[in-house]
Every structure is written in structure tokens, then in C-alpha cells.
Amino acid sequence: MSVRFIGAEAAAGTSAGASSNFELATEVRLVNLAGAEATITILNGASGTNVQGSFTLEAGASEYVSKDMEDRIYASAATVKGVPINTRR
């Protein structure tokens, strides 16, 4: 898969209040740099009050997430980083 990075990598927030839309990207690459799994939560829209979904990101793993522009993401661990990407060249 070809991936174009369209922003800077940043640590994911660890609460709904610290969640990020990752520069309004519709695709985000997440990586868990810790030795333990982390829970990733995606919140609907700019208000970030409704949980759209969540999943476990294994230790040392990465995952691509598709989302709406204003959807926000946070992780249960500060060791998760995200970067806005584009896979549809």
C-alpha cells in the first residue's frame, strides 16, 4: 500500500478532552510504541461526545484508521502516536 504523510506525527491524547482530529485528516496512521496494548477510541464529530468505536492496538503495532474529518481520536496510553495520511493518491 502506498501512503502519503500529510502532517506531523504527534502523541495521541489520553482522554476525550485531549482527543485530536489529526489536522482534519480522513485517514490516520496510529502506532503503539509501548510494550503493552492500548485502547483506541474514535469520537463522532467536532463535539467529541459520542463514541463511534474503539479497538485494541497491540504493543508495537500500527493501524490505519479511516474517519470523518471532524471525528476525534484518543488512546489509553501516551505512547500512542498518530500521523495524518492519504492512501488514495
Describe, in short, the structure shown:
By secondary structure, the chain is an all-beta fold. The chain has strands spanning 4-5, 10-11, 27-32, 38-44, 50-57, 62-66, 72-75, 80-86. The termini are close together.
Blueprint (SSEs and pairs):
Elements (H helix, E strand, L loop, with lengths): L3 E2 L4 E2 L15 E6 L5 E7 L5 E8 L4 E5 L5 E4 L4 E7 L3
Antiparallel strand pairs: 1-8, 2-8, 3-6, 3-8, 4-5, 4-7
Can you walk through the features of this model?
- The mean pLDDT is 95.
- Strands 1, 2, 3, 6 and 8 form a five-stranded antiparallel sheet that branches.
- The chain is mostly beta strands.
- The protein has one domain (9-82).
- The chain contains no helices and eight strands.
- A hairpin with a 5-residue loop joins strand 4 and strand 5 (50-57).
Structural class: mainly beta
Q: Give the helix tally.
A: 0
Roughly what fraction of the amino acids lie in strands?
over 45%
The overall pLDDT average reads 95
Major sheet attributes: 5 strands, antiparallel
> What number of structural domains do the residues give?
1
N-to-C order of helices and strands: EEEEEEEE
Rounded radius of gyration (Å): 12 Å
How far is the N terminus from the C terminus? 11 Å
What's the number of extended β-strand segments?
Answer: 8
Model regions low in confidence, pLDDT < 50 over at least 5 residues: none
Query: Shape from CA axes?
Result: globular
Helix content: under 10%
